[in-house]
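Pasting as-is:
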Amino acid sequence: MLRESSLFRGVGPDVTATLLERFPIRTLQAGDPLLSPDQPNHFLYVVLNGELQVLVGPAGSATSILVTAGNCVGEMSIIDGGRVSAPVVATGDSAVLGIDVDNFWRLTETVPTIARNLLGIMAERMRSTNEALALSLQLQQAYERWAFLDPLTAAYNRRWIDQTLPRYVERARRDASAFTLGVFDIDHFKRYNDTHGHPAGDAALRATVRAAQSHIRPADRLARIGGEEFCILLPDTDLPGAQIVAARLVQAIAANPVQASDGTPLSGVTISLGLAQAGADSSPDDLIAAADKALYGAKRDGRNRFAS
């Protein structure tokens, strides 16, 4: 049934077989809730057998939409940060395959057909429910989100940097506030790729981003410039404050394990990081050049460290 589902149409049998092995199957009885607007959801569910009911609209006058075997629910939650827009309950004995959000985005990176199928599903939902306007906006947001994200790591991409960094620099100048830019790359990354192979290099890039994202503050922003090079935007942060963040990142990434897609442990990586604080007359290019200069200083001093 998984291979016949709308989400996995055109996907190879090896991928669907792996999904059935790796991810949990949840069984439901009639009336059992699967999704509720008062509970965040971070799973996409594929109906393997049975039937689900989506209740769209206000209580007492909700429209019922049936989701049959081979279809999916929860896709909007994944795009909308966990927010559930409508309750979903089982109409009878049912089984669903649950794929968590992190693994789902990794699937779309490695199997682009899944991403295309998802957009088609969302477009169809847009035509078939009375939430067409809301879903249309969410679909637009999904396109925008993907346009500004690096498909391998899910960090912001170079296009996002080019549009956003000038605004951060201008805001710091206008408000006379502190702003620091960090630029870092993975040490000896070409050697890592040559030794372990490009799939391992991709795993190292993803692991680096996950470690960095979990050790920066809510207002900070991480982006992939290209290759193994990244930048971090630190608003309202002077150089001493940025040095605290940089030290935390260097330590966290050095201690972070790297695993292949099948769970096999791989060699870890380290980073070198350069910091530069915006001055009153700094342009974005000036700031990048200053951070790059500091980065090369960190490399010259032995790598696995930061410099400013």
